[in-house]
Amino acid sequence: MVESPSPTPRPDPIVVREFAQVGKHRVRVVRSSISPRASVILDVREYVGGPDTSFEGFTRHGIRLTSLAEVRILREALDAIESEKLLKE
């Protein structure tokens, strides 16, 4: 029987810039490697940790935007939410 090779673990992303935390979410611009052609991503991801948790780190809950077009669409949605006061202060 031939065993399949175990998957290679994905390296941790390189943080280009980290912004202010939004609730339990961390907002970062990350790149997948040091290669100049590596993809750059806006990563808004839930971070859990602390004395009451058995796991500390980033969860799968969040969003990843890979283009300025996606950022513009998100900005338009946030602007509409704010101007129409769809959320509480």
Q: Strand-residue fraction?
A: 25-35%
CATH topology type? Transcriptional Co-activator pc4, Chain A
- Count the E strands: 4
Strand order of the largest sheet: 1-2-3-4
Shape: extended
The number of helical segments is 1
Radius of gyration based on Cα positions: 17 Å
CATH architecture assignment name: Roll
Instruction: State the assembly state of the protein chains.
Output: single chain
List the helices and strands and how they pair.
Blueprint (H helix, E strand, L loop, with lengths): L13 E5 L6 E7 L8 E9 L8 E9 L2 H16 L6
Antiparallel strand pairs: 1-2, 2-3, 3-4
Compact summary:
With 89 residues, the protein is α+β, with helices and mostly antiparallel strands. 18% of the residues lie in helices and 34% in strands. Strand 1 and strand 2 (25-31) form a beta hairpin.
Task: Give a written overview of the molecule.
A hairpin with an 8-residue loop joins strand 2 (25-31) and strand 3. The longest helix has 16 residues, at 68-83. The model has no long low-confidence stretch (mean pLDDT 89). The chain has one helix spanning 68-83; strands at residues 14-18, 25-31, 40-48, 57-65. The protein is an alpha+beta fold and 89 residues long.
